[in-house]
Design brief:
The structure holds two protein chains of two kinds. By secondary structure, chain A is of the alpha+beta class. Chain A has three domains: 154 residues, no CATH class; 93 residues; 164 residues, 2-Layer Sandwich (Heat Shock Protein 90), CATH 3.30.565. In chain A, helix 6 packs antiparallel against helix 7 and helix 9 packs across helix 10. Chain A is rod-shaped and about 195 Å long. Chain A is built from twelve helices and seven strands. Chain B is 46% helix and 21% strand. Chain B is built from six helices and five strands, in the order E-H-H-E-H-E-H-E-H-E-H. In chain B, strands 2-1-3-4-5 form a five-stranded parallel β-sheet, sandwiched between helices. In chain B, helix 4 links the parallel strand 3 and strand 4. The model of chain B has no long low-confidence stretch (mean pLDDT 88). The interface between A and B is medium-sized, with 20 and 15 residues. Bound molecules: adenosine-5'-diphosphate and magnesium ion (MG). The site of adenosine-5'-diphosphate (ADP) has 22 residues of chain A, from helix 10 and helix 12.
């Protein structure tokens, strides 16, 4: 019976301490089998009338278990504890062996000692186990504490890591922002350089135009006077007495000469109007309102802008639609300033339609697209209304909100200064105390509305 | 009518002489030419009473048309000649200046001779 208890607890102990059910199922199966075996052994012992033979089977069984324990590394940590059972087994063995070989009379003499030794070995075993169990508990408690500490540390570490992450993200964001600002600054600088170049180009054009104007005046004047001279010459020749055939011949030459002079005058005038345009555009504002034919001014700048773009892009083509109020007469405005506004609005409009055409040149849906720029003027109720509209690229809301800011442009460097509309806005709202409004639909077109008090 | 034309461009003389060929021939106009402001002052000193009208460019090296205008208005307060200034296209500064210093009329370059002839004839007749 005591062996049954011993083996039962021993097996139970091994299974629990080594957590075999989880860690090594094979071993666990063996141990479970060993338990059944021990139960079987006990049952057989009682079935066969407390057979001595069966009782002896305990020794090889226990021996087997110990042999297992000593031959497998994984049992190392419980070996010393299991060893505590050895004295009990040895004492039992000695007792049983003595019972077997000694005559009953002599054995009975020593039986008491053996039983006592057995009790002591048993007590020792129990004490040892109890102690070990206690140690185990402390150890577990310590482990639990360590685990808790680890958990706390882990949490702290997580928190720290989170913080570091946060900081890293923040820093990266800041870095990106700085980079963006730097890019913007660089772009602004480029634009400034560009507009500075444009400004000096404007001055240069003004200078060149002035220089060209004088010689050009001579060309025009001399050719004009030569036409007159040719006429006089013709008259004079008709008075002379030269043969008719000769007269005709001479007149032919004179007529050619006169035609040539007319051609020189014509082309000289053309050059002259270009020079005038250049001067007018680069000229500083007079800041004076004067009676102006706004329709003619708008028309002139519409053409100027159109031909300006045509000169750069031969492919470009657009329909110019004008709807001028014929009853308008002359209106008090600053002609140069308003001219600049027109030039800007028209240049933008032509750019927008050209861009739309370019962007959709491979799109069959746009095959019938007709670029169109339109101007409407109307004098009504003491106000002058001017509308410049196009069916070009249009603008999204995000662009519309920025177009009147100086230097805002969506055009590639060299094609836009972003100053056109901000300048136009100042001219309309400040110099003329009017309004400049815009409506636009992305992909559809744009309309600028000028309202001037007159 | 004696007209003094002041311009630093020598070709101006040929141009005027051809443009006003008829008027010169029939004695309507008589042109003299000076190629700088200084020269014009010198000419006026010796022909003061003859010159009825002065036509002067503004942009000239040395003495400018404006300075010439000022000096004439100062030195000849009596029987002042008519002074017409020729301003470059769009040169509002000089226009304002000439106005201020008492120019009688203005022409812008390039000179429209039909217009000038008309103006001269009005003065001649009136
Ligand atoms: N008619 C238009 N159609 C589409 N976008 C336009 C139009 N007019 C102006 N814009 C937009 O407004 C921006 C600013 O215009 P502006 O001040 O004239 O400068 P810039 O023409 O030099 O770019 C343009 O870059 C363009 O994006
Ligand atoms: Mg623009």
């Amino acid at each position: 019976m005591e062996f049954f208890l011993l083996s039962f607890f021993l097996i139970q102990f091994i299974r629990k301490r080594l957590e075999t059910a989880v860690k090594s199922p094979d071993l666990d199966k063996m141990l479970v089998f060993a338990r059944y075996f021990s139960i079987g052994l006990t049952a057989a012992y009682y079935i066969f009338n407390q057979s001595t033979f069966i009782h002896w089977l305990w020794y090889p069984f226990l021996g087997g278990i110990f042999w297992l324990l000593y031959n497998h590394e994984e049992y190392k940590q419980i070996r010393s504890l299991v060893q505590s059972a050895i004295p009990f087994i040895v004492v039992s063995f000695i007792g049983d062996f003595a019972d077997l070989i000694l005559p009953k009379k002599i054995f009975n003499q020593y039986d008491n000692y053996i039983e006592t030794a057995k009790v002591f070995a048993g007590l020792w075993l129990i004490a040892f186990w109890y102690n070990s169990q206690k140690q185990q508990k402390t150890l577990e408690r310590e482990r639990e504490e360590q685990r808790k500490k680890d958990e706390v540390n882990e949490a702290k570490k997580d928190a720290l890591e989170y913080l570091v992450n946060e900081r890293t993200i923040e820093l990266t964001r800041q870095k990106e922002e700085l980079q963006k600002t730097l890019d913007e600054l660089t772009a602004t600088q480029n634009q400034l350089i560009q507009s500075e170049k444009m400004a000096s180009l404007g001055e240069l054009t003004a200078g060149i135009a002035h220089e060209i104007q004088n010689p050009l005046n001579f060309v025009n004047n001399f050719s004009e006077v030569s036409v007159e001279l040719c006429q006089e010459l013709e008259e004079e020749i008709s008075k002379t007495a030269i043969a008719d055939a000769d007269k005709e011949y001479i007149n032919g030459i004179i007529s050619d000469l006169s035609q040539n002079q007319q051609k020189i005058t014509h082309h000289g005038k053309r050059a002259d109007s270009i020079v005038k345009g250049m001067l007018q555009h680069s000229r500083a504002s007079s800041g004076m309102k004067e009676p102006t034919d706004v329709n003619a001014l708008a028309d002139e700048y519409m053409r100027l802008a159109y031909h300006g773009l045509r000169a750069k892009d031969k492919e470009f083509n657009a329909t110019l639609v004008t709807d001028f109020d014929p009853t308008m007469g002359k209106v008090d405005v600053m002609p140069q300033d308003l001219g600049r506004v027109f030039l800007n609005l028209f240049t933008n409009a032509f750019y927008a339609v050209a861009e739309k055409k370019k962007l959709n040149k491979d799109n069959p849906a746009f095959a019938s697209y007709k670029p169109e720029v339109k101007i409407i003027t109307k004098l009504f109720g003491g106000k002058l209304y001017i509308r410049v509209s196009d069916n070009g690229t249009g603008m999204p809301e995000s662009v519309i909100s920025k177009i009147f800011q100086p230097f805002f442009t969506t055009k590639p460097t060299g094609q836009g200064t972003g100053l056109g509309l901000s300048m136009s806005y100042d001219i309309i709202t400040k110099s003329h105390e009017g309004r400049l409004d815009v409506t636009s639909v992305a992909g559809e077109g744009t309309e600028f509305k000028i309202t001037l008090p007159v | 009518m004696k007209i003094l034309v002041v311009d630093d461009e020598p070709d101006v003389q040929a141009l005027f002489e051809q443009r006003f060929r008829k008027e010169i021939r029939n004695g309507e106009f008589q042109f003299s030419f000076a190629f700088s402001g200084e020269e014009a002052i010198g000419y006026l000193e010796s022909h003061a009473s003859e010159v009825v009208m002065i036509l002067s460019d503004i942009n000239m090296p040395g003495m400018s048309g404006i300075e010439l205008l000022k000096s004439i208005r100062k030195d000849h307060p009596m029987a002042p000649p008519i002074i017409m200034m020729i301003t470059a296209y769009g040169d509002t500064d000089n226009y304002d200046q000439a106005m201020k210093f008492g120019a009688d009329d203005f022409l812008t370059k390039p000179v429209n001779f039909t217009e000038l002839k008309q103006k001269l004839q009005e003065r001649y007749e009136g």
